[in-house]
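for the recovery benchmark. tokens below, seq after
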């Protein structure tokens, strides 16, 4: 019993003794000026990623029909949408058409002719495949031009 009462405090003392641990982080320079291997890059505290401004494509403002100008004004009168509204012009089925992106989620995007008549809704909805009236739109649209995108 005496041996047991002596051994337990000794075990606890050694198990709980503070250990000397050295901790570094990736931005801590090596103490020797060398790194641990030829493939290991030297640590740095400098920012390694330079911020790049998003490139906003220039809008094609030529010959916007009046109905389209009114739609743009209506979008600007609302609060900003997420994702932002984009209007693109395409050639589709031998005609010029305007594609207006969906305001959100499962809503339909719209394709209009040059007079402002709704032709179809090629994407969106619960299935993501639109209203089914122009299932070949994605494959057969050509000559994409950005007409407008919400600048806010």
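predicted aa per position
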């Amino acid at each position: 019993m005496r041996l047991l009462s002596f051994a337990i405090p000794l075990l606890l003392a050694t198990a709980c003794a503070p250990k000397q641990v050295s901790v570094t982080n990736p931005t801590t320079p090596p103490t020797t000026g060398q790194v641990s291997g030829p493939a290991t890059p030297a640590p740095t505290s400098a920012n390694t990623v330079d911020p790049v401004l998003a490139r906003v494509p220039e809008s094609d403002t030529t010959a916007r029909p009046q109905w389209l100008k009114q739609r743009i004004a209506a979008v600007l009168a609302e609060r900003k949408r997420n994702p932002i509204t984009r209007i693109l012009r395409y050639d589709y089925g031998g005609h010029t058409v305007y594609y207006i992106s969906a305001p959100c989620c499962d809503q339909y995007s719209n394709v209009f002719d040059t007079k402002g008549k709704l032709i179809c809704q090629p994407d969106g909805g619960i299935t993501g495949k639109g209203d089914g009236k122009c299932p070949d739109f994605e494959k057969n649209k050509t000559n994409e031009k950005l007409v407008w995108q919400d600048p806010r």
